[in-house]
Design a protein that fits this description.
Length: 151
């Protein structure tokens, strides 16, 4: 992702129905940190189809760990889902993590019904649910952590 991509990524975030409006400025802050100093705390990759940004992923080394990485945010435009963009984004992310010596990738998500497809996606990609903190985000909205380990 470059600075020129930011308006399109912000439009994508705003149009992602799973994200609450208050989450978007938080995602933007992370993007700005990345644009300010790519690779220091975060890396952001965009998925492009016919010169249009249709997806993005933000990830980074987990501070104070030896080889753990967090995949913080990921989204594919609603009209482009189910066509492999999410798989490509995750694949390139995992490749970059492994190349940097990463051994463990973590993804945090919500238990809400509208994240069911997201959970299915991660399970299909061999992520294992390893933690569930009940009522973390709100009563009835649990925090789930998925992991994938690399050799
Ligand atoms: C999760 C997400 C990134 C997946 O992106 P995508 O481009 O639709 O994924 P793909 O097209 O690569 O699909 C990958 C696999 O998941 C499966 N899949 C995708 N959508 C699915 C759905 N709605 N139900 C069941 N499986 C689904 C596909 O069948 C595919 O399987 P295959 O590789 O065997 O063909 C996308 O749905 C999304 O943006 N969700 C909302 C935002 C979000 O939840 N982000 C993550 C939390 S931060």
């Amino acid at each position: 992702m470059t600075a020129a991509d930011k308006p399109a990524v912000m439009a994508l975030l705003r149009a992602t129905p799973e994200f609450e409006p208050e989450e978007v400025p938080v995602a933007e802050e992370v993007i700005d940190v990345y644009l300010d100093c790519p690779g220091r705390d975060y890396l952001v990759t965009v998925a492009v189809s016919s010169s249009k940004i249709i997806g993005y992923v933000c990830f980074g080394r987990t501070p104070l760990t030896q080889s753990t990485w967090d995949i913080y945010w990921m989204a594919v435009a609603l009209e482009c889902r189910g066509m492999g963009a999410g798989s490509q984004l995750l694949k390139t992310t995992e490749e970059q993590i492994q190349k940097a010596g990463g051994k463990l990738a973590l993804i945090e998500t919500s238990s809400k019904p509208n994240y069911l497809n997201t959970r299915r996606f991660y399970i299909k990609k061999d992520y294992k649910r390893v933690s569930r903190i009940r009522d973390f985000y709100a009563p009835g909205d649990h925090r789930l952590i998925f992991e994938k380990r690399f050799p």
